[in-house]
């Protein structure tokens, strides 16, 4: 057996990631465009999980989605159905997609379609609902479902038509710009959302939708600085897929949480999840909430960190500390530290305050295990009970055992004697 | 004579500046809303100047404006008219307004109206034409005049109606946000323009203008990241007017250049200009231009520095160095140094990379003279010949003699023996 040149393999993987050009090409109905998504399947964030182990907000989102899909007539009925075994649950990540927080998606939801023209690969994500009481934080009230229906009936179709009336939007260039504008592109998306809004608005005007609907769509996008989160995530996933599944490669290509387990996947260990308990997020809570209200870490949004954004690019976004806590010096330090566990630097994503140094890119399982430094993630915090919603935002790390288990598996496969 | 407590007077002046709430309330026709603007009067940037001493780009803009106004049928005729004595020239600053670069404004141009509701005071500025061959850089070709007519006939009226269909836009809050998003709000306005675009787009849709015009207006605003410059300037002027004219106050309330002279005005020396030769800007030139092509420093846009933005807030905008030259460390240093010549720190305008320290606010004539530190300005560079346009951007300081002359005048008035 030829010895593996892991460093060279990882370098090639980083180059492959850098070559991807994620473009926003359209909107589709999830059931029509997401691979293997069927009517009785609920996609969710993080590694695989069964109903009985799901946390409150994930259960809440599942129940809300079943009512939204017309598979149940009420939340209690949805709860019985979800527990009955008639509904399947699978990770978004195994369907070329990602979902923020609970990350629940079902067949009739509209999804962004992000494409790399050269490879033809596509990734998907639902549209962002806004902050507060929203499905992705486990809320399922009539207000939440009414908004989801409006997103399906008005927002989705208007954006779909708008995107046919203009060229694809280069998301990599847009993210690169946003990093020059104080976004770290995970929990701060004000610049990216603004730049997206500028790109979309003229095309929205050119649709045949009634002016009232056009205005409502613009106001909805304008009201929510997190609109772009649901594009940075599939863009990040599309880039990282270029490293999957590559023999002998130790780069982490997925970090994702379902609110109970934190799971990672590694390029050289195809399709396998390595999990540990999702951590408690430390951060700033909205008034009226206490730490005991907080659900453990949840969501696929750590895909942004996996590609060098979010917690890895906090030096680009000093203002983020007002949302997730800590000081500006902390934000600088998080980015600096992440260079110790990554094998490359992004060509496209540059940190202005570090003299335009490329963001730390390519988390190396070996470096994480050698240094003991865990990836730095910033994230929203969901209430631990179904039906409540967001309670704050903060900072968290993956559990060490994900990396230890992955390393053990890597050694077992690649170093058999 | 009671001794002056200059420090207390300056503190009060800074407080007065901080209290101003500049809001974008509408669009008007300059001749109808700008005080004492008559048909044969051309407003310009900087201190007063006669035709014979005007630099190339200011002459170019004047000639273009005379043709645009129908006062001359051709550029040669405009040149003769401008030199004839039949046209009056006065600084924008003496008409409650400001103009970027040549800063030329005439009666039929649309202007933004910025208002402080509490005091009822208003300031004005023309709408930004975009980059390259534009009147404010001294270009006057048919392309330039056609654009100005479209701005008068379509852009102005659409924005005017849009602004009646929504509440006033709080420019101070918007600028404060932009500083958290990598703008220094003089030569980098990408975030501020994006935020403005988000505010305006839904209102533009609600106008009765044809969809084609609405789309063109959105695309025009979208295509020009400097759109907001023509709002940050009158907002800055409105704030600084609160310090004028205040007995014994040594705060600089105006820094402005006409391309020949740099002039300052001081709160305790009502209406007087103290001038010196406009400096050569050091910076990055567009391909094909050399230093000998560059006109000396020009424009009223240094009003942004006077209120703590632009060169004073470069630490908020590391990405600006790609446009004006220098390093990120330089940008940090410029801001740090400006605290040595200012008496206050902005409450609204915060520098994220300095742990949200307020921007240096209130340039003190005495501190400038004591320390020898000159205000740091960043600025666009015009070609020195009429008709060409912008050739680059860079950094410049005012001439020392403005401050020396102002100090001498201050001593003469306030310390007679």
UniProtKB/TrEMBL annotation, chains A, B:
Gene3D superfamilies: conserved protein of unknown function from Enterococcus faecalis V583, Enterococcus faecalis V583 domain, v583 domain like. This is DUF1116 domain-containing protein. It comes from Candidatus Ozemobacter sibiricus. The lineage of its organism: Bacteria, Candidatus Ozemobacteria, Candidatus Ozemobacterales, Candidatus Ozemobacteraceae, Candidatus Ozemobacter.
